[in-house]
């Protein structure tokens, strides 16, 4: 074997045992616990998380020269000066990772709380529209709407002491507890106290449920099935037997309901006929009763009252 291929083979083996450290390391994650919205004087912890075996972490606050070489920063009491943007990175050997996504640490409770309302109301049907309005008495030009459980608030700039957050075609996922904040664009990390919570309730119909509405108007019964409710979802490849059995049961229900309605109508007619007959007999017997004797002063009383004694007699008999 010639020396040239042998040398190339040995060089390849040596390079194969050398780890390739080209490029930048993947970025870590940075989170605030329990939340990035921190009331004044309340504790919060910033935690930077990278892969196992990291040599060094660096946590820094942007727009300042302050940083620390550790993965966790515990703040025992939130201050206005600590609000702002943070990021972190880590080092392995001589290489630094990409910086993490920026974390906005917000101090809340700096200003008085705004009010939050829902238009037309906090209860809305699925598929409808609702608008959440945040209003304050101060001249703030920024507002934020926060839903419990969501990672970040929804921001909306306004300049008339209020902001509208429309929610179009609501679903069950929009149900929950909402709060809003107000702040100024000059100090974007100093927010007001949260508004009182607003509970948004979204109601929706089940696809497997049908409703039978029976309305009685002027002794006429009507049965209606809402079109917005699907009685049975259609599946591809499903046999026709269950569907046919469903419609058979539906027809039986309609027939039984019709029979009940006819029986009720017959009962109403019979009761009406019987009551009319009783009133007719009572009226005939009343007419056939003998009239009481007329008073001897019939003429004088009749002249004064215009024949009203006879009317009084009939009224007492009836």
Question: Can you describe this structure?
Answer:
- With 318 residues, the chain is of the alpha+beta class.
- The chain is built from four helices and 20 strands.
- It has helices at residues 3-16, 240-288, 298-305, 308-317; strands at 29-33, 37-39, 44-49, 56-61, 67-68, 72-75, 84-92, 95-96, 103-111, 115-119, 123-125, 130-135, 142-147, 154-157, 162-167, 176-184, 187-192, 198-203, 213-217, 220-224.
- The strands form four sheets. Strands 2, 4, 5, 7, 8, 9, 11, 13, 14, 16, 17 and 18 form a twelve-stranded mixed β-sheet that branches. Strands 1-3-6 form a three-stranded antiparallel β-sheet, with no helix packed on it. A three-stranded antiparallel β-sheet has the order 10-12-15, with no helix packed on it.
- The protein is elongated, with a radius of gyration of 42 Å.
- The relative contact order is 0.09.
